[in-house]
Amino acid sequence: MKPRATVTTDPDRTADGADVPAGGGHGDGEGKDGSGGRTGRSRAIGTGRIRTPKSRPAEAGPQLNGITWRQRLYRDRTLVLMTVPAIALLLIFNYIPLLGNIVAFQDYDVYDLGITGSPFVGFDNFTRIFEDYRFWEVLVNTLVIFVTQLVLFFPIPIAIALLLNTIMSARVRAWVQAVVYLPHFFSWVLVVTVFQQMFGGAGLVAQWLREHGHEGFDLMTNPGFFKFLVSAQAVWKDAGWGVIVFLAALAAVNTDLYEAAAVDGAGRWRRMWHVTLPALRPVIALLLVLRVGSALNLDFEQILLQRDQVGAGASEILDTYIWWTGIKTGDFGYAAAAGVFKGLFSVAMVLGANKVAHMLGEQGVYSKK
């Protein structure tokens, strides 16, 4: 009794283990009789092949959601073209000027030698900064004014947004929001003028006190009150912008949470503490990190307009100091070095504040991986 033929899945070997020539073999090439057809069904079965579908060639480039970055770029070509003007402006006015920081390492002569001809002095300009006691006094004064504004200014937009969120009338809410937001469009010249007319020595408040037998005052020339004065000006001018940001965050809160809290017996304060404020925490953390990053970037125009009234000892900040000792006197290398120090310090502040936000469980400027 002859043994049965076994089926093999190897396309290059027969049932008895013999190799099949490439391009031929039983059942696929010519038969022994030269007819070009199959010589027998059993032979075809004995040497049958299991054909596997040919794999498609892998496309070059990383895959993003099933498509390559080239395909995604072509798909979003309209959006990419819309961003080209913004990217061009960013490069021209933000990144290309960074090349001018080379002045911080030069004895820069703006009139004769220029950037290409001015000699390099290494870190001499930075050494001058660190050895200048006046620079450190100005740095401390800048941080004191910033902390005062952070404590007095930052909570006020949150409080106004919470107050407006409780107003049921949409018309009243819109009117109050417009009134609060209007000073944001005023220039610092107008803001300082308004405060001068209100709280100056000849202002309305001082005149009203004198008319009623009291001694008048002049807050605009009081050095000890200056940090509170600039904080009040910042609140009056920019609180409305912060209100819009927090109102937008409050609009995204699910109203079912308030209803569930009310059913559980929570009053208005409980609902605000356990529903509203947790919903605002991510926005508060983000704005706080950004605010800390601009600790040395106070409003230059606001301080410069009032510098002579209270004196440089109380009003000098880093920007006005750089302008006065660097640019106005022509020491551009010193001013550039101070600007580089300010940028590095601000980056360190942002990274530190963002780290604190991560420790508190918030995302901050970027998420923690």
Could you name the key traits of this structure?
369 residues, mainly alpha, disordered N terminus, 2 strands
Characterize the structure shown:
With 369 residues, the protein is mainly α. It has 17 helices and 2 strands. It has helices at 41-46, 69-75, 77-95, 114-117, 124-131, 133-153, 155-165, 170-181, 188-199, 204-211, 226-251, 255-263, 268-293, 300-310, 312-315, 318-327, 332-359, and strands at residues 63-64, 67-68. The chain has a two-stranded antiparallel sheet. Strand 1 and strand 2 (67-68) form a beta hairpin. Helix 11 (226-251) packs across helix 13 (268-293). The chain is globular. It starts with 40 loop residues before the first helix and ends in a 10-residue tail after the last helix.
What is the topological layout?
Blueprint: H1 41-46, E1 63-64, E2 67-68, H2 69-75, H3 77-95, H4 114-117, H5 124-131, H6 133-153, H7 155-165, H8 170-181, H9 188-199, H10 204-211, H11 226-251, H12 255-263, H13 268-293, H14 300-310, H15 312-315, H16 318-327, H17 332-359
Antiparallel strand pairs: 1-2
